[in-house]
Amino acid sequence: MKASGLAFSALLVLVLAVASLFVGVSDVSLATLFSGEADGRALHVLLASRLPRTVALILAGSAMAVCGTIMQMLVRNRFVEPSTAGTVESASLGFLVIVLVAPGLPVIGRMAVAALFALAGTMLFLAILRRIPLRSTLMVPLVGIMLGGVISAVTSFLAYRFDMLQSLGAWTTGDFSAVLRGRYELLWIAFGLTCLAYFAADRLTVAGMGEDFTTNVGLNYRRVALFGLSIVSVVTAVVVVTVGMIPFLGLIVPNIVSMIVGDNLRRSLPWVAVLGSGIVLACDIIGRIVLYPFEIPIGTVVGVFGSAAFLYLLLRRNARVF
């Protein structure tokens, strides 16, 4: 039943991906592609813009959803994900710093610096959690949101001092409209790390049961936790550098999947990846249709949908907590 449900969900994602190829201002349709009347423009738009955009949506959506699952498992709280733990804001700060200090650095170098900042911000978040009494599970995302607000304020101040506020807004707003062939391939790194997380799913599941339990079964908890957080940091940096922030995706998808298949990562990660890519594809199509021919950035669409889902989870009386 669950396997057939996963296959059906994958089929829906495939339908959304095909629809994504033919939605937009430029006239790209089966008729223009095969009529023989076109001068090749429709085919060029399809191969240079629409296809890379669709692939980028699938890669970014699945990777960010998997990152949210890993963070929730390691922190043992369902309200945590990269955008509620300061990880995304730290990656943005790192990206801005490297643009100011070494603007000529290649994209891979910018991604590496952003990943280091993201890892440092996540470790700072965990260090704060260890030092304060957590009387409520809601304190964990609250601490993360406050930490992210402080880091975001520092980023905005630096951008203001160096007259880069407008550029910062353009970088950090999740938007796939500028994705073209040759400008999204960095996301394949996120895909590789997502696969790596699947192969290490059993260890991450054990780490989610706590340090004492992990040590008792013969695993090094700190090493497994660092491995998981490194995946989260690098994937977050890749997505921020390539397309900007996609808020709340890593929060809502793991919670929905947990209701369907439970908390074992070996079973849930394929669901998380499929559902994450499906939601991102659907939100991007909505953003392209609502104000056609103009576009609403996907960060705004996912933010509206995700914030509503976040509030629902907070108010849900029988919300399960690790």
TrEMBL record:
Any single GO BP term: siderophore-iron import into cell
Keywords: Cell membrane, Membrane, Transmembrane, Transmembrane helix, Transport
InterPro entries: ABC_BtuC-like (IPR037294), ABC_transptr_permease_BtuC (IPR000522)
Pfam family, one: FecCD
Name of the protein this chain belongs to: Iron complex transport system permease protein
Main location (coarse class): membrane
A molecular-function term among this protein's GO annotations: transmembrane transporter activity
Membrane topology note: Multi-pass membrane protein
Signal peptide per UniProt: none
UniProt organism field: Aquamicrobium lusatiense
Family: Belongs to the binding-protein-dependent transport system permease family. FecCD subfamily.
Record-level GO cellular component terms: plasma membrane
TM region positions: 55-75, 87-105, 111-129, 138-160, 224-257, 269-290, 296-315
Subcellular location: Cell membrane
